[in-house]
Amino acid sequence: MRTFLMLTLFFFLYACKENPKPNTDDNQNKIKTDSLAIMKDSINLETLDTLTYAKKIHERIITLDTHVDINVKNFIATKNYTQRLESQVNLPKMEEGGLDVAWFIVYTGQGKLTKEGYKKAYANAMSKFDAIHRLTEEIAPGKIELALTSNDVRRINAAGKKIAMIGVENGFPIGTDIANVKKFYDLGARYMSLAHNGHSQLSDSNTGEKDNKWLHNGLSELGKQVIVEMNTYGMMIDLSHPSIEANKQAIALSKAPVIASHSSARALCNHSRNLNDDLLQMIKEKKGVVQAVAFKGYLNKDKRNKRAYFEKSLQKQAMKSLGFTWLEKDSIKKLDKLNKDKYNANLYKAKAIAKKNLSKAKNVPENVNVADFVDHIDYLVDLIGIDHVGISSDFDGGGGIEGWSDASETFNVTLELVKRGYTENQISKLWSGNLLRVLDEVQKVAKEIQSKS
Question: I need a labelling partner for 370 at 20 to 30 A (CA). Which of 11, 29, 65, 284 fits?
């Protein structure tokens, strides 16, 4: 850039030399003004070139987000992902932002470890498996297809369609029937975490750090069997929600690489959902990958809390203008259904009003943004290497930051990576190459295990 400016100024001054003008103050001022104009145009051109370069990279590579939650109500004939719904991810938003692959999540919240609890969890999981298959096989087979391997991803992408993949968040729905691991695999699940927020029958959760109370001191015996089954069939082991001890045991037991589907660096943001440096190094040594997550509270708690407090104050004001007293979540839960529905309807209106007022407000605290997100990617790359880092959003499950608030803004992550000097090859690895490499290796190990049995 500097060379370009010097050459531009040289030719400009050379032209002046060939056509000499009186050396007046006005003429000198004009030369300075013209030179500044040339520099300004050049800087704009450089910005445009960076943008164009980033767009070309974004178009060429396969972009893959390993964690997108779903609501089965958005997978029916009259309301589905072919429409630009309010959901953070759907086909129009994927098209707009250039997101190629979405790992749709079969998520089940932690319930009671009873026969009835397992039955309810299994039904929930099956409803989400069914929803994903309905989208890809009945609702929009010409627009999106389910991938089971890295070759499927590349084939479907080459055909110009979007790609769905399936991850299971919380092994709770398996219950006590080990055969459900194979059943979930056959339905398309290619990764699974053994716990979520709360200890499951398979594993302790990261949430145990709050009170230092544990159920298994890591993995249960059944959980260890599940790890073996996942290795046998080629399902990636996800470390994003279990406890530190459970994750260490899973890494040691697994015969294949492991992943963290949506976790960031604890060194930058001290949250139990993030991974400490020891775990990060263990994942690297296992040839795995850590998918940094665009979740405000896992990126910068201080910025997130200040902004949330400010936005909440605007929402309280809006609720007051609607004639309602602000209630905290616990108080809302105590309302009967009629009053709860009425309150939530007005809360929705208040949030819309607050959002409008936010644009006019002064001294608004900075929001957690794409730069904060890429700070975590930078840290992970520096610590464990470019081959062991990936990207996830946790959209429709609490994720979303300024600049990448939904799938339509996916390009902004690529742009920030380009600005920081990442090459196309490196960006391709971050967006999909590393994760697909791990999937290939996990499936290779499964074939070796099966051939020996």
Answer: 284
Q: How far apart are the first and last CA of the chain?
A: 62
Q: Which two tokens stand for residue 116?
A: 């009835």
Residue 153, number of CB atoms within 10 A of its CB = 22
> Are residues 122 and 18 part of one domain?
no
Round to whole Å and give the CA distance between 384 and 289.
Answer: 9
Report if pTM > 0.90.
no
Instruction: State the pLDDT at residue 14.
Output: 34
CATH code at position 406: 3.20.20.140
| Domain-located, residue 210 | yes
**In a 3-state reduction of DSSP, which class is residue 267?**
coil
How far is residue 105's CA from residue 196's CA, in Å, rounded to a whole number?
13
Span of 23-27, 144-148, 406-410 with lowest mean pLDDT: 23-27
pLDDT in tens, 226-275: 999 999 999 999 999 999 999 999 999 999 999 999 999 999 999 999 99
Any domain includes 149: yes
For residues 241 and 321, state if they share a domain.
no
- The rounded distance, in Å, linking the Cα atoms of 64 and 104 is 11
